[in-house]
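Worked example

This section walks through a single chain of length 339. The input is the sequence exactly as stored; nothing has been trimmed or padded.
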Amino acid sequence: MRKSTLTLVAGLAASGLVLAGCGDDDNGGGSADGGGSGDGAGADVQTIGDVDSGSCDPAEGDAEIPDAEGTGDDETSLTIGVFTGWDENYVVAELAKVALEEQGYTVEFEELEAGPAYTGVADGDIDVIMDAWLPNTHADYVEQFGDDLEDGGCWFDEGFLTIAVNADSPAQSLADLAGEADAYGSRLVGIEPGAGLTNATQNEVIPTYGLEDWEFPTSSSPAMLAELDSAMASGDNIAVTLWHPHWAYAAYDIRDLEDPEGSLGEAERLYSLGRPGFHEEFPNAAQLIRNLYLSNDQLLEIEDLMVVQNNREDNAGAVAQWLDANPDFVANWRAGTLT
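Given that input, the structure is written out below as tokens.
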């Protein structure tokens, strides 16, 4: 879900791993031996299919990385899978690239749709992905690949799926939409057909709130954002599928509709997941990635630089600009003290 692409104005086209995962039902979090050893060895590695992915605290198990100035005992070439167009994924991938390359790693990105990226990690062709939305949005991928994806914990716990409208439109709740069909043209604008948000909207929101007669076009996130931009410019009412975090909330005067029936689920965690053997072969990098934590404000600051101010033309430059303004971030990240 959540491809957010935007090149503002013209196209409006258009986020690691430890030696154990976030808590399962038995130990309530951390590694099987207590976690946070920081030595890259000795803790049991769990697969994401074996943990309660809804109970993770960001950077749980953080610790000083074994070799803060080098690569330790790691392999030195690492491939990060990046979901095409997902802005928060570009943010964390670029941050990881900066930190790891400063330590001597070679980092490459493999940019793919979510499904092929999950397949690549499970098959061992990609080392790590850093934007798995759990427990709900990417549940189907966990069902399919969970036994082959090493759980690296989460770096964010404020991900929400939403239906958003222009702030001056009449509906306040999803329960209001059916009665305000004329105001919105009986139209709810979606994103990619295969996205988790699309699935939740089709199978939960629409039947729950009696919107079966509404048009629900699904094409792409860029197309949805282009429609949003056009409607905001012309002063027309619009309802779109959206999510938090997203820079569009700063760029436009929009708000979420209340969801009294809980059709879009609770808060999501954003996880890092490694290929089979990732922790064993990259214990130093795994602890670094595991230590990552971004607040909602920090993530939106970087997305604003990346998307709104730079039109997604220089993602690395936007991240470098943010790091220049936050000079202690990488050192605290390596020390395991971001939270």
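What to look for: The CA atoms of residues 62 and 270 lie 16 Å apart.
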